[in-house]
Specification:
The longest helix is centred in the middle third of the chain and has 28 residues. Helix 2 packs antiparallel against helix 3 and helix 8 runs parallel beside helix 10. The strands form three sheets. Strands 1-5-4-2-3 form a five-stranded mixed sheet, with helices on both faces. Strands 6-9 form a two-stranded antiparallel ribbon. Strands 7-8 form a two-stranded antiparallel sheet. Among the domains are: 105 residues, Glutaredoxin (3-Layer(aba) Sandwich); 32 residues, no CATH class. By secondary structure, it is an alpha+beta fold.
């Protein structure tokens, strides 16, 4: 083995990858190689004429004084700024026949038909011909009207054909003949929705709805039935004349004459026809017949007396002469007030 001092010591030599051994000059840089390849490529063709290109190359290759460069540029100027040909030559060329195609270039196609002008005479002829063409053509409005008229005529013809086909239908014709044999009219008769109801007209109720009710709650069922019919009519938003028998005794006498003795409220009358009490009205409303009757009779729609600011729909207000006491002082005696009813009420002056 021996100690470390007894070993032979060699001279230090750096590895091949060290910077001391690495030759920087031997590297071929890629951008320099690309530049050389780019210069070695063929030059792109140019549209500059060869004599001018040669002169430009000569100027670039052999730079000289300013006088020499200016002289070279003066030689190039006539080629760029050549004078235009005279107008007479252009007119002669346009008026003359086109030259025949050269036999050396058989593949060259003839120019297409052009609508451009070459002389002032051709321009004036084209401008003068345009207004005449516009006059000959019809405007867009007339064409649109024609199209619409044709469309309406076609639609009318289709409707006429459909009506004729319905008239000539076998079943319709057979039904019409059977009706004629039985003596019935074949024309359509509008049905009267009030024809099945009894004719009983309250005073002043030939063209309106009249409802007899009571505002007294002594009999609970009667009071609730009156409110129920009132709510139904308000839901249909029709104007009705509510006659409260508890406020005015004359209304009770009217109801007895129409229905008979022992008649209870509520009772409804529509344009001189007696509809019935609460059961009949509720049944008609549930089946939808009441709405159809009100629409067919064309009764007045709205709030009516319910929107009156004087009575609030009660139709009566206290008497202004007696104050609702039914007594007035005449001299030294008290007498019955002739203006109010038995309850000391008079008709509202705002809604009557």
């Amino acid at each position: 083995m021996g100690c470390a001092s007894s070993k032979r010591i060699d001279v230090y030599r750096p590895p091949p990858s060290s910077f001391a051994v690495f030759n920087v000059n031997a590297i071929e840089e890629p951008w320099l190689k690309m530049g050389d390849e780019h210069h070695q490529q063929d030059e792109k063709p140019t549209h500059v004429p060869l004599p001018i290109l040669d002169k430009l190359k000569a100027i670039e290759d052999a730079p000289g004084t300013w006088d020499e460069v200016s002289k070279a540029l003066e030689d190039i100027k006539p080629t760029f700024n050549s004078p235009p040909p005279p107008a007479s030559a252009i007119t002669k060329r346009t008026n003359s026949t086109p030259p025949a195609q050269d036999s050396e270039a058989p593949n060259v196609k003839a120019p297409g038909k052009s609508f451009s002008f070459h002389t002032l005479e051709e321009l004036e002829a084209k401008v003068s011909s345009k207004p005449t063409e516009l006059k000959e053509t019809e405007p867009m409005g007339t064409e649109l009207k024609k199209f619409q008229s044709n469309k309406t005529e076609h639609a009318e013809s289709r409707v006429g054909a459909m009506s004729n086909s319905l008239k000539n239908n076998i079943f319709i014709v057979r039904d019409r003949l059977e009706r004629e044999k039985e003596g019935k009219s074949s024309t359509f008769v509008k049905r009267d929705l009030l024809s099945e109801f009894e004719e009983k007209c309250p005073p002043g109720g030939a063209d309106s709805l009249v409802l007899y009710t009571t505002s007294l709650g002594g009999v609970r069922s009667t009071f609730e039935n009156c409110n129920r019919i009132r709510t139904i009519l308000e839901t249909h938003r029709v104007v009705f004349d509510e006659r409260d028998i508890s406020l005015h005794g004359e209304f009770l006498n009217e109801l007895k004459e129409l229905v008979g003795e022992g008649a209870s409220v509520p009772r409804l009358f529509v344009k001189g026809k007696y509809i019935g009490g609460v059961e009949e009205v509720v049944s008609l409303n549930e089946t939808g017949r009441l709405g159809r009757i009100l629409s067919w009779t064309r009764v007045e729609r709205g709030v009516g007396r319910l929107g009156c600011e004087g009575c609030g729909g009660a139709r009566f207000v206290p008497c202004l002469d007696c104050g609702g006491s039914c007594k007035v002082l005449v001299g030294d005696k008290k007498e019955r007030c002739p203006q109010c009813n038995e309850n000391g009420l008079v008709h509202c002056p705002m809604c009557i």
